[in-house]
Specification:
Helices cover 79% and strands 0% of the residues. The chain contains 7 helices and no strands. The longest helix is centred in the N-terminal third of the chain and has 26 residues.
Length: 152
């Protein structure tokens, strides 16, 4: 491990502490919770841009392990684990495909699959979640539109 790798490791460690602070704040601040997830996904993207794919994957798994160890609300972390934390890495891999239409279709399929899995998981653990006033069939198109704006 050379001096450059030590610098990347130290930089990633500082960003990891910032990310964990954001995830912890998400547990205690009742407003703007989604924005804290979005900021945390930007941090993973910064690690990807600055340090490369290998460090960003290690960074993501380190953030998952730390979030599970620390006193952070675990059920709400599902959104970070399944989408916001890993999306920057998945986007980087998907965007190596040259056809923009195929890239957009793959991203929407990924997002919809994650949304559906999270919905099933939440409805299993939170019985009230199944009795929501809004149908998932109404919610999905709006969620996909929000995802496309997020992806820009």
């Amino acid at each position: 491990m050379g001096a450059a790798d030590h610098k990347k490791l130290a930089y990633s460690g500082i960003l990891l502490s910032l990310l964990i602070i954001l995830l912890f704040l998400r547990s205690i601040i009742p407003i703007n919770q989604l924005s804290l997830y979005i900021f945390s996904s930007f941090i993973v993207g910064i690690v990807l841009i600055e340090n490369g794919l290998k460090f960003s994957v290690i960074f993501y798994f380190a953030s998952v392990i730390l979030a599970l160890i620390l006193p952070i609300e675990k059920l709400s972390l599902l959104i970070y684990f399944s989408f916001f934390g890993i999306y920057g890495i998945i986007k980087y891999i998907i965007e190596k495909i040259k056809n923009r239409v195929i890239v957009l279709i793959i991203k929407i399929i990924y997002f919809t699959a994650v949304l559906y899995i999270n919905y099933l998981f939440a409805s299993f653990f939170i019985p009230v979640f199944n009795k929501a006033d809004i149908s998932i069939y109404v919610m999905v198109p709006f969620a996909i539109a929000a995802f496309i704006v997020y992806d820009l």
